[in-house]
Amino acid sequence: MSSLTTPTSPPPISVFISYSHKDEDLREELDVHLANLKRQGKIQAWHDRAIEAGAEWDAAIKHQLETAQVILLLISPRFIASNYCYDLEMQRAVERHDEGTARVIPIILKPCDWQDSPFSKLQVLPKDAKPITKWDDQDEAFLNVVQGIRRAVASLETETKKALGATLNSPEAIVPFTSSTPTPHTPHPTPCLSTPLLSTYDAATWVGREQLITDLTQKLRDGYRMLAITGITGIGKTALAERLVVEVSENGIPFHRLNFDDRGQGRDFLSGALTLLPKLGETVTTEDQKAPQNALKHLLHTLRNHRFLVQIDSLEMLLQGDEQTGWNAFTDSLWVDFFQQLLAGDTCQSQLLLTSQALPEELEMVGSRYPRSWHRQDLGGLTEVEQLQLFEKYGLKPDGLDSEVLQRFVELYQGHPLVLQVIARDILEKPFNGNVQQYWQRYQAEFDQMVRHQKGNSPRALQLRVKQRVEQALQRLPVDARHMLCRSSVYRRPVPEEFWLAMMEELPEDQQWSALELLKSHNLAEQELRGDGVLLLRQHNLVRSVSRKLLKDDRAAWQRAERKAAQVWLDNYEPEPDAPKLEQVRGKLEAFHHYCEVEEWEAAKEICIDQKVDVQLLRWGYSQELLSLCEPLLGKLDASVDEQCETGIGNAYWSIGKRSQAIDHFQRSLAIARKLGDRGSEGNALGNLGSTYWYRGDYPQAIEYYQQALTIARETDDRRVEVRMLSNLGGTYRELGNYPEAIQYCQQALIIAREFNVPSGELWALRRLGDIYKDLSDYPQAIEYYQQALTIARETDSRGGEAWTLEDLGEVYKDLGDYSQAIEYYQQSLTIAREIGNSLREGTALFNWGAILLKLEQYSEAQQPLQLSLNIFKSLDDLEGEADALLRLGELHYKTGQLDQAREFCDRALALATELGVPLVKECEELQLKIENKKLKEET
Length: 940
Fold this sequence. Notes:
CATH architecture of the domain at 210-378: 3-Layer(aba) Sandwich
Number of helices: 42
Number of strands: 14
Distance between the termini: 96 Å
CATH superfamily of the domain at 210-378: P-loop containing nucleotide triphosphate hydrolases
Structural class: alpha/beta
Shape: globular
CATH topology of the domain at 210-378: Rossmann fold
Strand order of the largest sheet: 6-7-10-5-11
Largest sheet: 5 strands, parallel
CATH class of the domain at 210-378: Alpha Beta
Helix content: 55-70%
């Protein structure tokens, strides 16, 4: 039998770029924006520089033009004037477009007379198409071009995957099994998936539901925008949805999935939208990342104006509650807005398939308003005929007596397909080898007892019976396969195949593969492809809950599995190319979790503290992840570890603006350090306390803490802390208006930081100097210091420092009246703040952006960022930020004539400002007076 090598990902899409050589600089600009697609291996971009040395130039160009799947025409006066570009490349591109053999995308680089040329016939170019004026996503023409390219690539990629799936499913590509026992596997096989698009549906084992499929398929063809399939776990919701996809696939609708059963997928709407948009060929813009409402508009626009079939699996994961207590409302109400607006719009080309164990009442109410666009389908078990068909599909050929026995199983489990598959597998395996009567004789007492104790036919009762049957089936698996399944249940995420194999390291490699293949053949190891083509394995939630329970019944085996999983993450994990920073340390984070599960605190501490993952997360700005490392370690080891954990927790709270909690933890850190006599840690804690009081506006208290910390730093020769305290003292004297003193402290800090190579200290000193010179209206000097600080932040990968410095630059350009440049810097800061989860920076960037829009009298645009900033400041208990946002919202409502709302916002701002004793009181009182005067004028 010959082996078959199966590609795990489609080849890159070939892109031909046609342009005049005189527009080389503009073509290079386009290349910059295609670079990400190239890095992902999605495209191979061709232009004249790609021709191999010695090749015939004309023939090579023609060959590339004929074989390209996407053709980009860079239109300009020079392009039209070029006989070669116009007569050969463009004419042939238009022909290939008409033939349907290539996607052709004209890109207007400069104003030119293109309406009379052949490419005016291309439907992809509107008659009122505009030239690109700016090569970024602030320019609508550019954004349309990039989105068009991504859509074309995504569409072609989907077609390639479909073709690849068809090849893999051809008879020649499938190696048949001659028995129910798996054949020993050769090491490192290439996986063969049924199709890269569908995960659960299998035509070979599918039975029944014909009328339901006909009815639901007709609803899709009638234009229903949303079909919701509900039912208990394992009843076949996902498989049915995928069966519907197969039914309508002949229409060529691009199909995509968003699966919330993936524990790595965020549950909030913004996370879901930012995951789904690229799947639809869309570019996630900075506008999308600024606010969930922007992403909502983008996603709605895409789904309404382009044809997609989107499957959203495990919708219950977005709801409050769980399987035991039930589910109710969405945790993020924006999901309701999304579904409602998708149903309510005048037109929508896309359709959604939802699967869920439950639907919240709020979604049901929304759907009931649109009976021609919404349908809910409750999915029950298989009919009697369908159940017997299923047994036959799995190789059982029951006669009269066998059918009676199988019918008893059917009645007990109400036609639940997953458990019937489990029973069929049990009967087919040794020692029964397909003998239904022997199986019944062996387990009749067990089934009879279950029937006697049966407590009704509710979904909950059925779920319990299904779990019992799954557990019994897992108990009867061959030992190696059962151990692999149970041990692998400790993984929280989908993992590569070798992670499962490593859990059975005591076995020879061929036995490991045999165990894994048996699990796959029993549908106990679900498979999915990662973006870079790596095959991942996971367990269905029902199977995982049962296998994990079985594992934990043997405490020693469970602990060994957790330790082994931790080691596998540390040794074997490789992130995807260009993975986000957090994913680069994912192996360590998951290992930490496994060690905590079995209370291996020393090993967990080594990852968090000894390997400085806590410091790395703080530098990147991942505050929530830092909390998840430090909090479990508190009180588990010695006092020195507690001191470091208290510091880490304080830093995390400080980063997200929860200053009261930060002070509490810094005070605890200080007390422990003094008890230990650790002068270095004492100085660090004093400095942290100084910073929290500085942010509270208590400058005398901040100076006292900073001076104490500076004294200790000089005693212990701790240059890092010395530089930080000098910079902080400079910043505090700046707040007091003592600029000569402030400059002196910051210059001292800068000199020491550069002399002793303390980049973080240099960054801090430069930012402080920029602040001082901004106050003094020496804007060129301020910008110079900020730009130096930005360079250091990027060189040292300090994402938090980068976000702060971008915000600083925005403030300078705001003072200079260059509002567009200021907004650009705020938006860059906002993007980073959201990426790293720094809510304080996010709120500040939103506030600054909204304040400028308010100043520019763009009132409707200003309201959303200001309201979002208010929500964030309130959640962080940032009273000063809350007061600022309230005042600006009051001003906005005053400007738009909504005087009652303006007065309400202003009164709330004044109350907070008075409580805090900040200068904002005067602005609030002035706005109050304006509101009253305007109301008097209106009344008279």
